[in-house]
Amino acid sequence: MDLTTLTKADWHQKAAKLRYETRHFIDGKYVDSIGGGRFEVVNPATGRTFCTVSAGAAGDVDLAVAAAKRSFAARVWSRKAPRERMAVLANYARLLEANAERFALLDTLCMGKPIRDMLSIDIPQAATNFAFFSELIDKIEGTVTSTAADAFHYILREPLGVVGCVVPWNYPLLMAAWKVAPALAAGNSVVLKPAEQSPLSGLLMAELFVEAGGPPGVFNVVNGLGEATGAPLALHMDVAKIAFTGSTEVGKQMLVYAGRSNMKRVSLECGGKSPQIFLADLPDLDVAVNYAINGIYGNMGEVCNAGSRLLVDRKIAPEFIARFVELGKHAYRPGDPLDPATNLGPLVTSSHCARVMSYIERGRKEGARLEFGGATPDSPGSFIEPTLFSGVDNRMTIAREEIFGPVAAAIEVDGIEQAVAVANDSIYGLAAAVWTRDLNTAHKAVRDLEAGVIWVNCFDHGDMTQPFGGYKQSGQGRDKCLESLLSYTQTKSAWLHLG
Fold first, then answer.
1. Domain assignment of residue 256, yes or no
2. Are 127 and 93 in contact (CB under 8 A)?
3. Can you give the chain as a three-state secondary structure string?
4. Do 291 and 458 touch, CB atoms closer than 8 A?
5. What burial class does residue 486 get, using C-beta atoms within 10 Å of its C-beta: 0-12 exposed, 13-18 middle, 19+ buried?
6. Cβ–Cβ contacts within 10 Å for residue 253, how many?
7. Is the dihedral of CA 79, 81, 85, 86 positive or negative?
């Protein structure tokens, strides 16, 4: 069935018939929490409870880690022939695509993502992620070094052991794929802790791994609140690495947990306040404005690298902002996320909606000009209209703190040097962009911008060869790419004395 041809009514009918699991997935089977606890998942488009899910605690984490540790010790995955592991993950990528309808509904109903985005972005990119890392499995090579004639020295690259993956709610399936795929490809066993707002797609992921031929116990999932489940996982003495995507505040706590436990490795992809620099010589104003609109309003602005700061050269600022208002005011309309025509769903929770609205009010009070938006529609659910502020100073709260909602802040600058200085005046450094015809200016901007990902005359482009991660308090480590795979391994040096 071509899912892109389904109507709003079709998706509502499918949602009414959707079957899903809400228990933990440990050692190849679904199990209830030891303590029997449950927590609610609320559909943010309606404000009503969608389901209740097993609430994990330290004991459930212990069971999942023990299962992962046993599977790793038994070498049922880590020492499976590379071509066999490649076949399992390649088959798994196909299963993700084959179950697109279920994944689309699960994440849309849990966190409000438009169904069209699930079908066009999250699911195909998650499948591509697993296919990419499956192809790298037999490309991991050791090294033989040049030594004296009486020695033979070689370096092996081996998996770490048990990897804990803690992922956010804004891209539940895709962010899990970014962590789990390279961890599995490197030969590790995994315990995934999904966000409590969006736990169901992670459970289906683990189930399909076994269906694809993966050994039980290699991929486990424990649901629960961060304090009850995420903290015990990060503190666990048998976990060799924590791979985390989420807020900077919690990312810092992950480093503390690593130090308090076994000095486990930690990779972090945290917050951002990404600047887009629009210089007076940009190639095409309308193209640049459209990228700016999509860069902040896509996925409801709930994106770590959202282009939330628009640094516009003063020479073109009036024209740029006027065009942004004209093209952007109605480009994204809040609506039912199960409607394929909707491109702006609700924010993930009512509390997050209130938080974003508090930032909008703060922007007003600090003197920024509200060009459009800034309100919640008169409808159920956690919706916020796309919002643009102009006349923003980089010292304002809306220019400094991560809002994680559809709120853009336009800041006028005089030329590239001031633009770079303003761009770098942030605790974050996840991504940035520069728009210019001048190749020399572009290269200097890339050199001087303090960000892990930089785009020139585009925004949010890339493929699986692109390392994704940040500078400063946007985190450490990289997702996607070969570097990501190697970060889930460790080296062993063997020195043989030949006599």
1. yes
2. yes
3. CCHHHCCHHHHHHHHHHCCCCCCEEECCEEECCCCCCEEEEEECCCCEEEEEEECCCHHHHHHHHHHHHHHHHCCCCCCCCHHHHHHHHHHHHHHHHHCHHHHHHHHHHHHCCCHHHHHHHHHHHHHHHHHHHHHHHHHCCCEECCCCCCEEEEEEEEECCEEEEECCCCCHHHHHHHHHHHHHHCCCEEEEECCCCCCHHHHHHHHHHHHCCCCCCCEEECCCCHHHHHHHHHHCCCCCEEEEECCHHHHHHHHHHHHHCCCCEEEEECCCCCEEEECCCCCCHHHHHHHHHHHHHHHHHCCCCCCCEEEEECCCHHHHHHHHHHHHCCCCCECCCCCCCCCECCCCCHHHHHHHHHHHHHHHHCCCEEEECCCCCCCCCCCCCCEEEECCCCCCHHHHCCCCCCEEEEEEECHHHHHHHHHHCCCEECEEEEECCCHHHHHHHHHHCCCCEEEECCCCCCCCCCCECCEECCEECCECHHHHHHCCEEEEEEEEECC
4. yes
5. middle
6. 17
7. positive
Q: Do 300 and 221 belong together in one domain?
A: no
List, by residue number, the catalytic residues: 269, 304
CA dist list (Å): 449 to 51, 276, 308, 315, 441: 44, 11, 16, 22, 12
Domain that holds residue 84: 7-270+476-492
Residues forming beta bridges with residue 413, ordered by sequence position: 313
pTM, to two decimals: 0.97
Please name which of 202, 185, 204, 184 lies closest in space to residue 193, comparing C-alpha atoms: 202
Is residue 24 within 8 A of residue 222, CB to CB? The reply is yes
pLDDT in tens, 348-404: 999 999 999 999 999 999 999 999 999 999 889 999 999 999 999 999 999 999 999
Same domain, 282 and 263: no
What is the number of structural domains in the chain? 2
Torsion of CA 333, 337, 339, 344, to 10 degrees: 20
Assess if residue 497 is contained within a domain.
no
Average pLDDT over residues 6-18: 97
Could you read off the pLDDT of 447-464 as tens digits, one per residue?
999 999 999 999 999 999
What's the confidence (pLDDT) of residue 134? 98
Given pLDDT bands bounded at 50, 70 and 90, which one contains residue 467?
very high
